[in-house]
Amino acid sequence: MEAWRALGGTAERVPTDGLPAAVAAYAARRDGPLLAAPGIDVDADLHWPACGPQAATAASVGVVRAVAAAAQTGTVLLRSDDNRGRAASLLPPACIFVIDAGTIVDTLGDYLRGTKDLPSQLVAVTGPSRSADIESTLVIGVHGPGEVHAILTG
Fold first, then answer.
1. What would the mean pLDDT of 36-60 be, rounded to a whole number?
2. CA 30 to chain centre
3. Dist. CA 16–CA 23, nearest whole Å
4. CA Rg, the chain, in Å?
């Protein structure tokens, strides 16, 4: 969690049954609906993909499940097929990544070498979205969420 926090993310660890309360507490500090990817058992206002892209753009927080996290870099790995695309993690200005503590590996290479069934798309998220123009002016949250929160369960 140190590497994740160093990159500008926030994190907490909760028991698995504490996930709904942790998500609700984080989302309560934001103004707008909560968008949940499939398989995330939380009380969400919107459920992806059923809500559609128009409704998803109004969400203030997205919640997605990570398949793994790399401790050395603070990188969270997402399978687009698990979350039915990338919209729930990219459209809202804040995103919660749910990570099972048992899936934390030392490096991204450890995950890739240990996974036989790699998806066609694996997304690596390392902190809030950052972009800079030619003058090196850094802007947060342009190509994805400007706020990222990891919830470790288990």
1. 92
2. 16
3. 12
4. 15
